[in-house]
């Protein structure tokens, strides 16, 4: 006997199970680009109450999802089409993983039986295999009844332990699969306690305290992991009760105000070179800190490191960690602060006085350069204007990328509140700016100021249309010096092409924003720039300011020219390379 068909009202499908699973786990926003096979999924997501923001390129949507993860401690969701769209999103997924930010990349894909036999399907690619080496975890869902558990696994993997990127492969046919609605609802999983506290061992805390109490020149380094933890009061309590000078990495600026009396940012070179004990809080001894060795740390290489990290494998990654504390930031710092009361009277006054003296001298030396009103602007004059705006608008989200634009802004523009500075992170990826700015506006509801080098802006500049389309309160400032690093490079051959680092002279990026209905402004001196940025923040309207920077300003590769083997910064290598070119030209 044939069983009667189930009434249509009692059915659900892969589309709705995926949407319901995401909503059940607190997802509110989707960043992505529509297309085959996920166009209808995006439409249905919007219909079901999710906010769906459609970008012009998947990498920018992924960068938005990545920074959303940093800001919220929940996985940012990026939705892409198959193959090329997936590959575009993969860069941002790897970026999220490298920076330890929770993100889930959901991509449509071809059917398994076609991919495995390599039969030449539309945008055929074994996406799962490609994603696995570049993210924390990767899953594929083949059956509608498994969607709930797949989303749960992806969420938990993204936020537990050391956060990171997760890939979820969704074959097109999965979305159309139909099943009983009651059974479908029962198959959904709400993740319970996805990122449980990891309490450090008492022995590790005691060991760390012994090392700290024996220090003559201690230093605390705050990394973006400390900012991500959102344990701001605990961090502040530890720093202030310890009395130890602290150095914030760029995205940790504002955890305590940069004007805080213990901030050693303006004395960075001194404290890194002379400190004998360094307490790493959510920071890693990677290239951004010269791997914990070399001249930056002094010739003796005698610095002893205390490191707080949730990932045990991070310890001893470059140098010996004499006191590893494995645990989450809040639990670890709470334990250390509690132990500080036992025999700790603070760092030696000679050390804190020396840091203050160097800091005050550097601030006084820099102050006049930040006040100049030269036209065309140099970086100090332009960033002085930006600094004054941020000082008056401390809640503004500050997005920053470029070479010189990024490097100088790190030290010249103060942050006053946590998680207000967003930049290229550990990988140093250019092109994150517009995606980051969009997510910052969406996730926080605050005004956003994105200060971009003209080269960095070029990677994601088309997203200003996205900013205008969604009417986001984003002001983009393009530092326009006609090129990469500088706009004065020359073609060394006899050809007519411009040098590889030179752009169109005197380009008007402000007119791009006007083309999409936003506000475009041209500024060629710091006073005009400050007025324009202040007005943009007050108005909340999509704005782009073309800030004219002297083409001669800046330097090769910013502050990391040593990584460019033939840059002008490397002197002898550059001269030797140029001499070889001359010899070849004469032959």
Largest sheet strand order? 3-2-4-5-7-6
Assembly level: single chain
Overall structural class, as computed from helix and strand content, comes to alpha/beta
Gross CATH architecture of the largest domain:
3-Layer(aba) Sandwich
The dominant shape is globular
Protein model, in words:
It contains 23 helices and 19 strands. It is globular, with a radius of gyration of 26 Å. Helix 1 runs parallel beside helix 7 and helix 16 (379-392) runs parallel beside helix 22. Helix content is 41%, strand content 16%. By secondary structure, the protein is α/β, with parallel strands linked by helices. Strand 6, helix 7 and strand 7 (165-171) form a beta-alpha-beta unit.
Write the layout of secondary structure elements.
Layout: E1 11-13, H1 14-24, E2 29-32, H2 39-47, E3 51-54, H3 58-72, E4 76-80, H4 84-99, E5 103-109, H5 112-116, H6 127-131, E6 137-140, H7 147-159, E7 165-171, H8 172-176, E8 178-180, H9 181-187, H10 202-213, E9 218-222, H11 224-228, H12 232-242, E10 246-248, H13 268-274, E11 277-281, E12 304-309, E13 323-326, H14 329-340, H15 349-370, H16 379-392, E14 397-401, H17 404-412, E15 421-422, H18 433-444, E16 448-453, H19 454-460, H20 464-469, E17 474-480, H21 510-515, E18 519-523, H22 526-539, E19 543-548, H23 572-586
Parallel strand pairs: 2-3, 2-4, 4-5, 5-7, 6-7, 9-10, 9-11, 11-12, 12-13, 14-15, 14-16, 16-17, 17-19, 18-19
Antiparallel strand pairs: 1-8
Helix pairs in contact: 1-7, 3-4, 3-18, 10-14, 12-14, 16-17, 16-22
């Amino acid at each position: 006997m044939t069983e009667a068909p189930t009434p249509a009202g009692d059915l659900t499908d892969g589309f709705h199970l995926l949407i319901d699973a995401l909503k059940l786990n607190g997802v509110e926003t989707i960043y992505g680009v529509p297309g085959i096979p996920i166009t209808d999924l995006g439409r249905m997501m919007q219909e079901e109450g999710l906010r769906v923001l459609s970008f012009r390129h998947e990498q920018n949507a992924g960068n938005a999802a990545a920074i959303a993860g940093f800001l919220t401690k929940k996985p940012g969701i990026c939705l892409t089409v198959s193959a090329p769209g997936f590959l575009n999103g993969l860069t941002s997924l790897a970026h999220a993983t490298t920076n330890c930010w929770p993100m889930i990349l959901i991509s449509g894909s071809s059917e398994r039986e076609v991919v495995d036999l390599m039969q030449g399907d539309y945008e055929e690619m074994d996406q799962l295999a490609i994603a696995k080496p570049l993210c924390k975890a990767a899953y594929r869902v083949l059956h509608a009844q498994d969607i709930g558990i797949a989303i749960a696994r992806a969420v938990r993997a993204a936020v537990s332990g050391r956060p990171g990127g997760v890939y979820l492969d969704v074959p097109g046919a999965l979305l159309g699969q139909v099943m009983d609605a009651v059974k479908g609802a029962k198959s959904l999983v709400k993740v319970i306690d996805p990122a449980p506290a990891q309490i450090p061992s008492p022995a590790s805390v005691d060991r760390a305290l012994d090392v700290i109490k024996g220090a003559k020149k201690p230093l605390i380094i705050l990394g973006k992991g400390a900012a991500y933890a959102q344990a701001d009061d605990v961090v502040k309590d530890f720093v202030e009760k310890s009395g130890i000078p602290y150095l914030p990495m760029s995205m940790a600026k504002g955890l305590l105000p940069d004007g805080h009396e213990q901030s050693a940012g303006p004395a960075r070179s001194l404290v890194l070179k002379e400190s004998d004990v360094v307490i790493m809080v959510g920071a890693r001894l990677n290239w951004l800190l010269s791997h914990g060795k070399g001249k930056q740390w002094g010739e003796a290489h005698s610095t002893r490191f205390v490191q707080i990290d949730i990932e045990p494998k991070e310890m001893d990654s470059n140098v010996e960690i004499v006191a590893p504390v494995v645990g989450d930031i809040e639990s670890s710092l709470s334990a250390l602060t509690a132990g500080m009361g036992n025999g700790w009277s603070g760092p030696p006054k000679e050390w804190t006085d020396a840091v203050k003296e160097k800091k005050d001298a550097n601030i006084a030396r820099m102050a006049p350069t930040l006040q100049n009103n030269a036209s065309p602007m140099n970086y100090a004059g332009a960033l002085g204007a930006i600094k004054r705006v941020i000082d008056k608008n401390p809640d503004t989200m500050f997005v920053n990328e470029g070479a010189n634009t990024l490097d100088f802004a790190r030290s010249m523009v103060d942050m006053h509140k946590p998680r207000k500075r967003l930049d290229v992170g550990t990988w140093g990826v250019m092109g994150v700016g517009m995606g980051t700015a969009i997510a910052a506006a969406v996730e926080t509801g605050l005004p956003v100021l994105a200060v971009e080098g003209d080269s960095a802006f070029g990677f994601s500049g088309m997203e200003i249309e996205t900013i205008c389309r969604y009417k986001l309160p984003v002001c983009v400032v393009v530092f326009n010096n006609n090129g990469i690093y500088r706009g004065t490079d020359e073609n060394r051959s006899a050809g007519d092409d411009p040098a590889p680092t030179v752009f169109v002279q005197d380009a008007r990026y402000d007119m791009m924003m006007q083309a999409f209905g936003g506000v475009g402004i041209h500024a060629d001196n710091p006073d005009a720039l400050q007025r324009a940025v202040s007005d943009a923040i007050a108005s909340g309207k999509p704005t782009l300011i073309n800030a004219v920077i002297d083409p001669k300003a800046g330097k090769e590769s910013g502050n990391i020219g040593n990584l460019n083997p033939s840059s002008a910064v490397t002197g002898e290598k550059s001269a030797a390379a140029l001499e070889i070119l001359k010899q070849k030209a004469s032959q």
